[in-house]
Every structure is written in structure tokens, then in C-alpha cells.
Structure to design on (237 residues):
């Protein structure tokens, strides 16, 4: 597709449940990122994929959070045993180093986000 | 210490006027990049403008320009001729080179809500 697609756009779940959030990046973008944005805050980095591998997962808050990108395209962020504090908008972004205008800038293109509410 | 500081929680501007959104940053890395993103109520983050730490000229992109003052560690966004559609949240972000890599691990500020009045 033309942009980064995230599904679902909204997810309401109960405390303790398992949740999956999906991201479909821009075709051909090898780099994929997950960020989390709490209400009134800027996005915070969670994890970065280069191809199929997680190159940097230093932002994952704890071991309840896990993300995969098995074929180097679509990624899924998985949250186990959800807690009320996990409520946030989860943003996915992708990038390619082939953007000549901003060579070296590695500009991220973001999706519209998945709003997660844990009751 | 905050790496990115946006001290203006909210700003108001009259349509067709110019407005400056402040951003200061903190890094010891000599190679870094500064970004501004716009986030309308729809939630999508829209890239506006980029400034590299070694760029000699201030970045410009249409009605957006970046007032880069390296010694003061500031990277203010200037929007000229404001339009009603500019009303949104604006985020300043920094990417540090982190040992030679330049992937997109961005640190964002708290954001500034801009309201454009007719």
C-alpha cells in the first residue's frame, strides 16, 4: 500500500488478556519500528527491526511485550497479560535509506496507530 | 535530563501570521539529526522537516523552516503564513548516531499544541 497500515485502529480488552497489534509497512521498506504514545506525551521507542531481525529491542518495557517480523514485511506486536498501564496508542513506522532528498536522515513514515484500552 | 524539551504546551496564532515553536535538545553526540513531526487529531505522525547536525544551512520545506542554533542546542520550527489546517500537535525529535548507526530510533519531546484562529 501507499502508507503504513495498522490494525486494529482501536482495541478494547480486559486486564490479563492477550493482544496482538499488526503493522503493514510501506512496500520495500526494510526498517520497521514500534513506538508507544501515552496520552499527552510524545512517542517512546519500543523496538526496531532491520529485515526479519530485531536489531534493537531496548525500549520494550518488560517481557510481556514481544514483537515479530517473520518475513521481513508485516510485523506483529504482542502483549501478554495486559495491564491498565499498557493503555496507549501504539505507533508503527517504517523507513528506507533510499529517500534521496533526505539521504542520511532515515525519515520515518508513521501509521495512524492502534489505540489500546485495557479495562 | 530531558533530551528534547518543548517548553510551550500550547500556542495560538492568527491565520496568515507566522509562528515559532521552540525545541531545545541535549546530546554529547557530534552527529545527530533533528526532526519535526505534525500530529493532527487523526493521530498519524506527519514528517515536516529535517536538520542534520553537520548541515551548514537551516532546513526549509515550503512554509516550514528550522531555525537551527547549534551552540544553543535549539531547533525551533517556524511556520509562515499559518493556515487553519496547521492546527495540530507538533513534536520535535532527535536521532543520535549511536556509535555510527543512523537508524530511526527517535527521542521525542512532549509536543506543542498549535491552534490557528481565523
Amino acid at each position: 500500500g501507499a502508507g503504513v497500515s495498522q490494525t486494529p485502529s482501536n482495541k478494547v480488552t480486559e486486564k490479563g488478556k492477550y493482544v496482538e497489534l499488526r503493522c503493514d509497512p510501506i512496500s520495500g521498506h526494510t526498517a520497521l519500528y514500534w513506538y508507544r504514545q501515552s496520552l499527552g506525551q510524545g512517542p517512546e521507542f519500543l523496538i526496531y527491526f532491520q529485515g526479519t531481525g530485531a536489531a534493537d529491542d531496548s525500549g520494550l518495557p518488560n517481557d510481556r511485550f514481544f514483537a515479530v517480523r517473520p518475513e521481513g514485511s508485516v510485523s506483529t506486536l504482542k502483549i501478554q497479560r495486559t495491564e491498565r498501564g499498557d493503555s496507549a496508542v501504539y505507533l508503527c513506522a517504517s523507513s528506507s535509506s533510499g529517500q534521496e532528498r533526505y539521504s542520511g536522515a532515515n525519515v520515518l513514515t508513521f501509521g495512524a496507530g492502534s489505540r489500546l484500552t485495557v479495562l | 535530563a530531558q533530551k528534547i524539551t518543548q517548553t510551550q504546551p500550547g500556542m495560538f496564532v492568527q491565520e496568515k501570521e507566522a509562528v515559532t515553536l521552540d525545541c531545545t535538545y541535549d546530546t554529547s553526540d557530534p552527529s545527530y539529526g533533528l526532526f519535526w513531526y505534525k500530529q493532527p487529531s487523526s493521530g498519524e505522525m506527519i514528517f515536516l522537516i529535517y536538520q542534520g547536525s553537520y548541515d551548514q544551512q537551516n532546513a526549509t520545506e515550503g512554509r516550514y523552516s528550522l531555525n537551527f542554533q547549534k551552540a544553543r542546542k535549539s531547533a525551533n520550527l517556524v511556520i509562515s503564513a499559518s493556515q487553519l489546517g496547521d492546527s495540530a500537535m507538533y513534536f520535535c525529535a532527535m536521532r543520535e548516531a549511536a556509535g555510527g548507526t543512523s537508524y530511526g530510533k527517535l527521542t521525542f519531546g512532549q509536543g506543542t499544541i498549535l491552534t490557528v484562529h481565523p
In short: Chain B touches chain A through 25 residues (CB under 8 Å). The longest strand of chain B covers residues 88-96. The radius of gyration of chain B is 14 Å. Chain B has a mean pLDDT of 92.
